[in-house]
Amino acid sequence: MMKLDKIPETMLITLWAKAEEHHYNPHFLVDKKAEEMLPLIDYDFSKFSRSKFSQAGVCLRASLIDKETQTFLSIHPDAVVIQLGAGLDARYERLGCPEVTHWYELDLPEVIQLRKDFFQENDNRSFIALSLFDMEWVEQIKAHNKPILILIEGVLMYFDPEEVKAFFLSLCQRLPKATVLFDMLAYSLVGHAKNHDSLSTMDKKQRPEFKWSERDSHTLEQWHPALHVEREYFMSDYNQGRYPFIFRMLYKIPYFYKRFNQRVVVLGISY
Fold first, then answer.
1. Helices and strands in the chain: count of H runs, count of E runs
2. I need a labelling partner for 222 at 20 to 30 A (CA). Which of 95, 151, 197, 202 fits?
3. Is residue 1 part of a domain?
């Protein structure tokens, strides 16, 4: 397997988590593609075997984003969808290869090269080898003149707050209307990647740091008048008993619930 730098390598944690999910009942999702890919990649996935909490969290997060995507596509079947930082995620397959106007998956060139070993482009599915901060992809999706859904999963937490804010402001400047569906790291984890049950297994020199979250998702609305939080999901509310008992108890405390809870946010851009 090609050597990946420290941010793209984290995509292997999410791949492992989804491939393992079929062992659990109840399960949050079924990802046959992840199950197929895992044994084909030369990587020591066994080091994640004790990362039960993040395994459940990854799959719960993905399932919430899957469901919100399905809801959006039921209203806008002609949508243009772009998944930023797609890694080796198989959302397109999990959702039954939806017949949207176009489905794009964007990631860094070395990741897209690896992605091509496992996934195929077709008439309404394309890969884009760019950084999400290289905003030329926006013009590509705008050109369709269709409803736009932007998916960002497990990515923004690794970037500086100034970069994340500039990214959203840039979207507002370029898009008159769109929906952004993304996850928000638990606020108290910022600066504490070494305490995360799966990232802590990585070599210190290779482990990325958690850099961004907001204690209140509505803070984003203060960045630009076009930004509107439409919905947010506190993930502990949907854990189905899969989170460790001590955390399920702690989430009953409002202080802990707000600061130690990962969220999935539906953010509208509109004027």
1. 10, 7
2. 151
3. no
